[in-house]
Amino acid sequence: MRSIINHSAIWKTIINFTAFFAIFLSIAISISYGSTDIDLKIVWQAVINFNPELTSHQVIQEIRLPRALSAALVGAFLAVSGAVMQGMTRNALASPSIMGVTDGAAFALVIMLAFFPAVSNLGLTAASFIGAGAAVTLVFMVGSFSKGGLTPVKLALAGVAIGTMLRSISSIFALHFQLEKEMGFWLAGGLDGTSWTSVRILLLSGVVGLIVALIISKSITVLSLGDDISTGLGQNNLYIKILGIFSVLILTGAAVSIAGAVGFVGLIVPHITRFIMGTDYRWIIPSSALFGALLLVLSDLAARMVNAPFETPVGAITSLIGVPFFLYLARGNRGGK
Amino acid sequence: MQQSGIKKRKRFMLILAILIVLIISMFFISLSTGVIQISPLEVVKTLFNLGTDRQELVLFDFRLPGIILALLIGAGLAVSGAILQGITQNELADPGILGINTGAGLAIVLFIFFFQDIIPSTSALSAYVMPFAALIGAIFAAFIIYLLAWKRGVTPIRLVLVGIGVNAAFSAILTILQLKMDPQNYRQVTVWLSGDIWNANWNYVVALLPWILILIPVALQKAKALNVFNLGDDLASGLGTSIERERSVLLLIAVALAGASVAAGGAIAFLGLVVPHIARKLIGPLHQYIIPISALIGALLLMVADTIGKNVLAPTTIPVGIVVAIISVPYFVYLLMKSK
C-alpha cells in the first residue's frame, strides 16, 4: 500500500494541479454563461481590471463571480466533510446528505425565520450549524445504539428516517408561517442569491474547518484502519474524533446555510478521490476539496443550462449524478453487507 | 392446535370489530370537524337528506370525498406494504422507501406534462386514466429496483439500499420536471413527494374504488402463499408452492395497490411500513389476518392523519403525508434499532 503512495506522489501532485486548473477554467466558463453571454476575454478583464461603468463588468463582479466562487467553496466543503466522515466511521455511505445534515440545517433555519424573522445572516448561519449538528448526532445515535451496530444500511435508513422527520416538521412550520418558498429553496439546493457576503461567510468558516481537517488528516488515515489498530498505535481516538466532528459541522453548516441541500457531493467525491489517490487522507482531503469544487461549479452551470432561462435546483442535478454512484456502492460488497 | 386456531379467530374477530367501531366513530368526528362545525347529530341528519343546503354542500362536496379517499388510500398502501414485507421477507420494505411511490408520482407528473392539453388534469377522464399512468410508473420503478438489486439473487438489504437510491433519482427528476412545467409552483412538488390528498372529489373516489375493492380481496386469496414465504424460499419450494410465480403475482398486486393510491394521494411514505408491523403485533404472523387488519388500521390511520392535518393548524392545511411521517417515523426508528 505504502509503495503505491510513494511511487506516485508526483503523479498525484500533477493530478491536483490539473484539477485546480480545471476549476479555474470552469469558473471562467460559468461566469461567461448566463442570460447574456459574456466573452471570456471580458470576464478576464472584469476580474483583472474592473471598470464599474461597464454593465458586463458589474454583472460579473456583483453576481456571477461570487456565485461561481460560492459554488466552488460549497462543493469543496461538502466533499471534505464527506471524506472526514467516511474516514472516521469507516462507513462507505457516511456523508452529509445521507445523514440528514441538510434536513437538520434547513429545520433550524425555518425555525429561526418563523420565530425570529429579524434574524441576521450570521444568526442564520449559526442556526444551520446547530441544526446540522443535531441531525448528525441523532442519526449517529440511532445507528450506534441499534442492534448490530452502525452498518452502512443502518446509517442510511436512520438518515432517511431522521431526515424525513425533520423535513416534515419544517414543512409544517413553513406552511404555517408562509415560508414555503424559503423552505423549497433549501430543500432543493441552489446558488442563486449568493453574494460576496456568502463568499465571506464561506471563507471564514472554511479556513477553520479545512485547516482542522488537514491537521488531523494523518490521524484519520490511522483511524480508518479501525479503532483497535489506531489505539494500538498510540493515538488518542476520542480527541481526533471530536476534532473531526467539529470540522464536519463547520464545513457542512456553512455550505448548507449558503446553498441549501446539495445532495450526494459529500458521498461520491471522497469515493472517487480514494480511487485515484489511494488510502492516505493527507492526499484524500485536499484532493476531495478540489474535486468537490469542480463538481459543484459544473453542476451549477448545468443547473442553469438545463431549463434556461429558469434555474433548476442544483441539488436535483447533483442527485442525478450521484444516484448511479450510490447504486454502485449499494451493490458493492461494502454497501451490501 | 385446533384450540389455538379458534382462539386466534376469536381474537381476530374482536380486533376487527374494535377497528370497525373506531373507524366509524372517527368517520363522524372527521365529518363534523372543520372550519364550519357540524355536530355529529347534524351529520347523521344530513346524510339522511335532512340537513340544510349549506351543510349538504360542505359534507357531500368537500368533506366526504376527502375522507373516503383517505380510507381507500390508507387501506391500499397498508396492504401493499404488508405484501411487500411478506414477499421480500424484509421488515423494512415499504412502497415509499423502495421508491415505488415516487415512480408512480413521476409517471403522473409526466402524464400531466404530456397530456395536459388533451386531457386537462381537472377533468373526470383524467381521474380514471391517472391510476393507470401511476400503475405503469410503479411497475417500471419496481422493475428497475429489482433489476438493480439483482446480483446472484436479491438480498433484502440491497433491495432497501437500491430503493433509497432510486427514490432519490426519481425525486430529482420529479423536481426538475415539475419546475419545468411551472417554475414558481414548488408546492406541487412537495405534494407529490410528501403526499397529499390533493384533488378530493368524487371522480377520484370512483376511480380508486374498484382498484382497492378488487385487489385487496385478491391479495387475501393469496394469503396462504404469503404465509409459506415466511418459512424461507427453500422450504417454500419444497412445499410445492411455485415460488417465483406466486412472488411475481403478489408483487404485481402490491405495486398496483401502491400505484393507484399514489395517483390520488401522492407519495405517502412510512404508512405501508408501519401498519403491517402493528398488525403483526396484534394478531401474529398469519397473512389471512394481517391483510384485513392492515387494511383497516391503514384506513383509520390515514383518516386520523387527514383530520389532524386539516384542523390542528387551521386555516393552514398540513399535507397528510407529513402528518403520517411525524406519527410513524418514531416507530420506524424503534423498529430500526431493534432489528438486526
UniProtKB/TrEMBL annotation, chain A:
One cellular component term from this protein's GO annotations in UniProt: plasma membrane
Keyword Transport in record: yes
Subcellular location: Cell membrane
Coarse class of the protein's main subcellular location: membrane
Record has Manganese as a keyword: no
Membrane topology, record value: Multi-pass membrane protein
A Gene Ontology BP annotation from the UniProt entry: siderophore-iron import into cell
Pfam families: FecCD
Residue ranges crossing the lipid bilayer per the database entry: 9-31, 97-116, 122-143, 155-177, 197-217, 238-269, 281-298, 310-330
Protein name in UniProt: Iron ABC transporter permease
UniProtKB/TrEMBL annotation, chain B:
InterPro entries assigned: ABC_BtuC-like (IPR037294), ABC_transptr_permease_BtuC (IPR000522)
Membrane topology category: Multi-pass membrane protein
Short name of any one Pfam family annotated for the protein: FecCD
Gene Ontology CC: plasma membrane
GO annotation, biological process: siderophore-iron import into cell
Principal location: membrane
Record flagged with keyword Protein transport: no
Annotated compartments: Cell membrane
Record-annotated membrane-spanning stretches: 12-38, 64-84, 96-115, 127-148, 160-181, 201-220, 249-274, 286-305, 317-337
Keywords (A to Z) from UniProt: Cell membrane, Membrane, Transmembrane, Transmembrane helix, Transport
Domain of life: Bacteria
One MF annotation (Gene Ontology) recorded for this entry: transmembrane transporter activity
PANTHER family according to UniProt: FERRIC ENTEROBACTIN TRANSPORT SYSTEM PERMEASE PROTEIN, IRON(3+)-HYDROXAMATE IMPORT SYSTEM PERMEASE PROTEIN FHUG
Protein family: Belongs to the binding-protein-dependent transport system permease family. FecCD subfamily.
UniProt name for this protein: Iron ABC transporter permease
Organism: Oceanobacillus piezotolerans
Lineage: Bacteria, Bacillati, Bacillota, Bacilli, Bacillales
